[in-house]
Amino acid sequence: MAEMDCVKVDVRKVAVIGCGFVGSSIAFTLMQSGLFSEMVLIDADGERAEGEALDISHGTPFARPMKIYAGDYRDITDAAIVIITAGANQKPEESRLDLVNKNTKIMRSVVTQIMGHGCEGILLVVSNPVDILTYEALKISGLPKNRVIGSGTVLDSGRLKSELGEHLGVDSRSIHAFIIGEHGDSEIAVFSSANVSGVPLNDVCEMRGFYRHEAAMREIAQTVKNSAYEIIEKKKATYYGIAMAVRRICEAVVRDEKSILPVSVWLEDIYGLEDVVLSMPAIIGAGGVEGQVPISLSQEEQERLMESAQVLKDTIQKVEKSVC
Asked: Which pTM was predicted?
């Protein structure tokens, strides 16, 4: 097993901070994964963390041996991955900026406590808005850029593959397509380089009897973008899909897979973008982000990526002014 940034961490240990629907679903999914032998759950409500740890641990006889317990920030020092899901939900009377400000304060508090206990692993931010909060985690932690990752558009890209698989009548695992940019309303579905096992998407569409390419792709992109809204309207929250997306990211790290995933990362002069955190395909391995992959984009997709980055930069500027 490769070492992470040449520091000694327990590659079989994970920490989950925040035990709401998302955090507990992630913990449950990781219990079944076999990736880790130890998992600590941390929450502002200590009894909630204890209850979740107890409940999830009762499933280990049907999975693999694993030590699962509620703890505190002292327990994360040697964790290979620290998953942050802590955050507030948006209230009816709150604006999006109100929510961003509130969760920025929470993220700053959480990361300060993490670093106060000498975290040596990788920070994986799942809390929303994930791009803004990953930016904050990176800034507050002082960690190398490769060791602070947001879950980004991994789930969005999975939703895109699922919709395309339904549309084409093919296994979604054979579809290679990404959503990039903001994990939010300005996200971009990259159809120009999408393919099914190496065959361009439009060619496969015609093979399957579909010729309304632009209209069909617009409909699919809109469906993907609105997926979370639809789920929240029907069941109040989304958590199973993101739990599977986080598991996939953890697999790439723990197994040093060098997998290419559209995580939220600090961009290094990709398409001229700098000083912003958003989702682009990146090589994920034991060291965290081990390289960025500037996939081919059409002119329209490049322009939309610039617009998405500007949305995030504008929000960060507002947050910096609002949050002391």
From this structure: 0.93
